[in-house]
# Entry
Amino acid sequence: MRVLVTGGAGYLGSHTLLELMALNYEVCVLDNYSNATPEVLSRVRSLSNGTVTDYTGDVRDDAMLDRVMAEFRPDAVIHFAGLKAVGESAEKPLYYYDVNVGGTLAVVRAMERAGCNRIIFSSSATVYGEPTYLPYDEAHPTTPKSVYGQSKLMAERILTDWTVANGAASAVILRYFNPVGAHISGQIGEDPSDIPNNLMPYIAQVAVGKRDVLTIFGDDYDTPDGTGLRDYIHVVDLARAHVAALGYAVRHTGARPFNIGTGQSYSVRDIVAAFGRACGAEIPVRQAPRRVGDIAAMQADAGRAMRELNWKATHTLDDMTVSTWKWQSGNPDGYTR
# Structure
């Protein structure tokens, strides 16, 4: 199968490329490198000893999409390309809707023009919003609190409506919880282009000496230690979910959402303690008030993915922190070392 991976040089995309190539999928990347670098693909090629076709371009560029579709002729698309910072989305809502919603529209239109009917979509558990009950299952109401979550939910609805109108189409919607960790080689990992918006890469930069202290936002949540609870998933498990989703898309039409998480929640302080074990040093922290848009707890019910995709997360919390430390300590300045 020939698979186009938008945003394939990013954190999630690069790990997914390796899993696809290990199973002899032919892969092509379209990336504008707004939060990535071509060095990522050099390392993917080295680790896989395989071939990656790549194009530099934006998913909102119709002419570029048509060129990629015509030259690579994908059987399926994995659509990662998008923006993902909750706080930034509140400051730049039009930008988030343009990229996350407009980009998805452009990709699907290009697929239609090329006769490609299968897409795996990078969504988010933020579409659920404040929990009515936990763990979240796919039937939970979708009432996102952030612009980012709204943009992902809008894209999901576009894909759902597309498959209703096009009976041959398949859209597998993967609602990620909190991807962390790095490849076992330590050669690829998460490398934010600016101040990290997510907990794990920030802790890693504190541990390696790039930042002085980790700020914990909120210690008064209704949780065991007062800090936010999240369902963290190793990026390799997440990548393997995309491979499973491709197999599902071949066998099914229509749109179907799946939670991709472990079903286990950890607090901010749990993560700090685990990272301290991984790096052999105490992580300095300071306390601050809650951030707007954050919720107390998130936890996945991933039973549907287990039953229908035949997928299950296998990596532990220590796997996540040890692999992150191996990546960060070996690449203190990321891909620009």
Remarks:
- The chain has a mean pLDDT of 96.
